[in-house]
Design a protein that fits this description.
There is one protein chain. With about 325 residues, this protein is an alpha/beta fold. It folds into 2 domains: about 5-190 and about 290-320, 3-Layer(aba) Sandwich (Rossmann fold); about 195-285, no CATH class. It contains 12 helices and 10 strands. It has helices spanning about 5-10, 35-50, 55-70, 75-85, 100-105, 120-125, 165-175, 195-205, 210-230, 255-260, 270-285, 295-300; strands at about 25, 90, 110-115, 135-140, 155, 185-190, 235-240, 250, 305-315, 315-320. Strands 1-4-3-2-5-6-10-9 form an 8-stranded mixed sheet, sandwiched between helices. Strands 7-8 form a two-stranded antiparallel sheet. Strand 5, helix 7 and strand 6 form a beta-alpha-beta unit. Bound molecules: S-adenosylmethionine.
């Protein structure tokens, strides 16, 4: 089927009227809260700068490999096999759309719909205008407009903590997920040590009054801090400090400071621009909730979903959830 036929099929999945221009439509405006608006603008800014870097291919490759681990697929053929039975795939909070494009390539029989509240949705639509089964919507995933239970695979990777109300968002993702065998794949930031949490909270509040330029400048400085700490190449044994949430063990100095005190991301394989965008991504959106593992399990159970797969790592929790 061609794009026009497919856009009609996509529109039929929605309760709200959608007017497509090619592969793009905007949901009618639900007015974002101040915090969500600031978060949208921060991501519009991040993605518009990142679009022009030449480090994207390495970053996308890294993200795809991580995705396979986060959601228990192991390798690309397993993910492809998993998507074989899916007719409708939703990438909730799709950013520049590269994961939606990957899913559309692995599942050419399915309709893949990416949605983002920031300007990245339109940029994604332009980048992937040639893919006949891939569509992009600008809108709030907490009010997605989908009919009940029409999505086979809901992907919400690295997004829910940036939404205005994570509980309402998760309820929405659960509502639109097919009741018999559908799945929601979702990622949550993990709470970190107390000094890091306090500094992060301070910045979440302060960043709303700082211009993007100042935040980019700080992101460059944090990247340089990470680079210099890494270059020291120091490993040491840290003691446990449970009251501060600091876990003892053998650490590289940069990683110890990163996990416990201040996000100073530096990864030479991903490159300078990606490291800087990662630091900007952390300190510029005012909305960025962190969760304990218990909070994630409670949220999933509260919305009537069971856990097909659950993954824990220092930075995050991720899992696939469906009706038991
Ligand atoms: C860290 S990025 C992750 C993007 C993409 N999922 C990925 O894995 O590369 C978070 C994205 O969520 C989007 N976002 C935040 N709140 C949203 C909401 N309420 N509705 C739709 N998108 C939202 C942001 O605009 C941003 O593009």
């Amino acid at each position: 089927m061609n794009q026009t036929d497919n856009s009609g099929r996509v529109a039929a999945l929605f309760d709200v009227a959608l007017t497509f221009e090619g592969n793009f439509a905007a949901l009618s405006d639900s007015a974002p809260s101040h915090g969500q608006q600031q978060t949208n603008e921060a991501f519009t800014e991040k993605w518009s700068r990142y679009e022009d870097t030449d480090e994207k291919a390495a970053f996308y490759g890294f993200q795809r490999d991580w995705y396979l681990r986060l959601y228990g697929f192991g390798d690309t053929p397993s993910l492809r096999a998993h998507l074989e039975g899916c007719e409708v795939i939703f990438d909730a909070g799709c950013g520049l759309g590269y994961k939606a494009a990957w899913l559309a390539e692995l599942a050419p029989h399915a309709l893949v719909i990416g949605m983002d509240f920031s300007g990245a949705a339109l940029a994604a639509a332009k980048t992937y205008a040639h893919v006949p089964n891939l569509f992009f919507l600008r809108g709030d995933i907490a009010h997605s407009g989908f009919r009940d239970g029409v999505v086979d695979y809901v992907n919400c990777d690295q997004v829910i903590m940036h939404t205005d109300d994570h509980d309402a968002t998760f309820a929405e993702l659960s509502r639109i997920c097919r009741p018999d065998g559908g799945e929601v794949a979702c990622y949550f930031y993990a709470k970190k040590a107390l000094p890091r949490e306090l500094l992060d909270d301070h910045f979440r509040a302060a960043c709303t009054n700082l211009p993007h330029e100042a935040l980019w400048e700080m992101s460059a400085q944090l990247t340089e801090l990470g680079r210099r700490l890494s270059a020291l190449d120091v490993t040491f044994d840290a003691p446990d400090i449970p009251l501060l949430g600091i876990k003892g063990g053998t650490y590289d100095l940069q990683r110890f400071i990163y996990w416990n005190f201040i996000k100073c991301f530096w990864n030479p394989e991903l490159g300078h621009d990606t490291s800087m965008a990662t630091n900007f991504d952390w300190y510029s959106p005012s909305k960025a909730r962190r969760f304990s593992e218990d909070e994630v399990h409670e949220l999933v159970a509260k919305h009537g979903l069971g856990e097909t797969f659950f993954h824990v790592e220092e930075a995050c929790f991720a899992g696939r959830f469906g009706r038991p």
